[in-house]
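Notebook, student rotation project (T.W.).
Task set for the rotation: take a protein with a known small-molecule partner, predict the structure of the complex, and write up what can be learned from the model alone. Partner molecule chosen: flavin mononucleotide. Sequence and SMILES entered below by T.W., checked by me.
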Amino acid sequence: MLNLRNTISIMWQTISYVSTANRFLTNSDINELFEYVKVNNNSLKITGILMYSDGNFFQILEGEKKLIHDLFKKILLDSRHYDVIKIFDHEMTKPSFSKYNSNFSTINKRSEHSELQQFLEKEKSNNPETFKSISYLTNKFMQLS
Ligand SMILES: Cc1cc2nc3c(=O)[nH]c(=O)nc-3n(C[C@H](O)[C@H](O)[C@H](O)COP(=O)(O)O)c2cc1C
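Predicted structure of the complex:
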């Protein structure tokens, strides 16, 4: 009998962008958004990070291709931000992050930091043309100690 488990393989997609936060957003609005995104993405097995710093958002999304594209369409229409600039949108063999995290400009846990480093290493070898902008942006958004 045909073993379906081995024939169905998931198509993984990753999208990253930066955007400008709507100036009416308060810190508590942002916290509320972070909490919603963390819960919703983790329940959909979407991994990555969402960060806010100095009026800008930076997001990395990884997950099943259609899920990621559908979510990104919704995000583009969200009035809580504007001027969304896509950094990359490509397939990947498997996700780098183990869960979804939303943070105010700092990655506190060592594990989150090492997953981001792994993600950057993969980008460097697979997508050298976007690696420069992504590593520049992650450094800008984070005050890594
Ligand atoms: C900067 C930013 C990032 C967002 N990221 C996500 C996300 O990763 N996952 C998510 O479910 N919603 C995210 N949202 C919220 C969506 O735009 C949308 O409000 C949410 O998915 C609920 O949509 P629905 O009620 O139409 O299903 C984000 C919004 C903003 C402003």
